[in-house]
Amino acid sequence: MISVSPTRASAAVSKIAQVTAAFWALKILATTLGETAGDFLAQTLGLGYVAGLAITGAILAALLTLQLAAKTFHPAIFWAAITGTTMAGTEISDLMDRTLGLGYAAGSVLLLAGLLASLFIWHRRAGSLSIAAIRTRGVEMLFWVAVLFSNSLGTAYGDFLVDNAGLGYMLAALVCTAVIGAVLVLHYRHLMNEVALFWVAFVFTRPFGATFGDLLTKPLAKGGLDLGTLNASLVCLALMMGLVGVAMRRKTGTAATPAE
Questions:
Q1: What's the average model confidence in pLDDT over 126-138?
Q2: Is 260 exposed, middle or buried (0-12, 13-18, 19+ CB in 10 A)?
Q3: Minimum mean pLDDT range among 39-48, 197-206, 244-253
Q4: In angstroms, rounded to a whole number, what is the distance separating the alpha carbons of residues 238 and 47?
Q5: pTM of the full predicted structure?
Q6: What is the Rg, in whole angstroms, of the alpha carbon atoms belonging to the chain?
Q7: Are 211 and 176 in contact (CB under 8 A)?
Q8: Which residue of 63, 74, 156, 215 sits 20 to 30 Å from the alpha carbon of 256, by its own alpha carbon?
Q9: Taking the C-alpha atoms of 111, 113, 115 and 119 in order, what is their torsion angle to the nearest 10 degrees?
Q10: Rounded to whole angstroms, what are the CA distances from 206 to 28, 30, 74, 148, 214?
């Protein structure tokens, strides 16, 4: 998958995960977990989207506080924060559609505008949208704002494909897979700027994960696998913990290796 290799100097201060195949695997799992956990709060527990957003927003605020306060990259904190943005993003999208009545199409347009605005401000401030160039807390905060918008947009767009476009969960997942596949081709043939490709992939892995989450949890009559939001969330959480554990062991091993 797309890899953005930081320089030695930026790697020394970066608190953002290095972009490798494991990054994208964890990103997809985080989006799926965010979708299923968000639906568990709002739908399975019957709390509604306002209460769901309040809960997930509080969780996200706590996780981002830990992430911003950290001095170095901590895989568990970073990926917990990513998952927090996907949980809150699920509630934001559903709140806009089902509580405020905006619809997924209008919601997607508004969230896309927010994402583009946050990326514009980030670029104006830092001169680059590369995650390898994130060296200050202010720029890191803009990164997280962009992540929240992108994950909210991914939920709205995924639901638009399923509901408004009438594709169903499987076809919607295939559409997102096709976009990700096109990004891979552009990456390996060096036909597009790497930073631009990263953000396209980052956005579209969200609807892929969200749609996959719906595929796991929705009833058989609606084209899902009927695992339920709780069981699907637990499966995704276990897989994420395993991958993050591997990343933490590798980080520890790298830190213990004497510099040449």
A1: 85
A2: exposed
A3: 244-253
A4: 25
A5: 0.83
A6: 18
A7: yes
A8: 63
A9: -170
A10: 7, 9, 22, 11, 12
Question: Who contacts 19 (Cβ-Cβ below 8 Å, separation ≥6)?
Answer: 1, 2, 3, 4, 131, 198
Cα 235 to Cα 230: distance, rounded to the nearest angstrom: 9
Q: Residue 10: pLDDT above 60? A: no
Rounded average pLDDT over 207-236? 79
In whole angstroms, what separates CA 97 from the centre of its chain?
20
The span from the CA of 249 to the CA of 98, in Å, is: 43
Q: Are 218 and 224 in contact (CB under 8 A)?
A: yes
pLDDT of res. 251: 64
Tokens of 74: 């901590």
Long-range contacts of 146-149 (CB under 8 A, 24+ apart): 146/115, 146/118, 146/119, 146/122, 146/199, 147/82, 147/85, 147/202, 148/60, 148/85, 148/88, 148/89, 149/111, 149/114, 149/115, 149/118
Residue range 125-141: average pLDDT? 86
Q: Which of 224, 235, 170 is nearest to 29 (CA)?
A: 235
Place of tokens 């699920």: 90
Q: Is the pLDDT of residue 101 over 80?
A: yes
Per DSSP, the three-state class of 105 is helix
> One-letter amino acid identity for 197?
L
User: Cα(78)–Cα(231) distance, rounded to whole angstroms?
Assistant: 24
The residue type found at 108 is: S
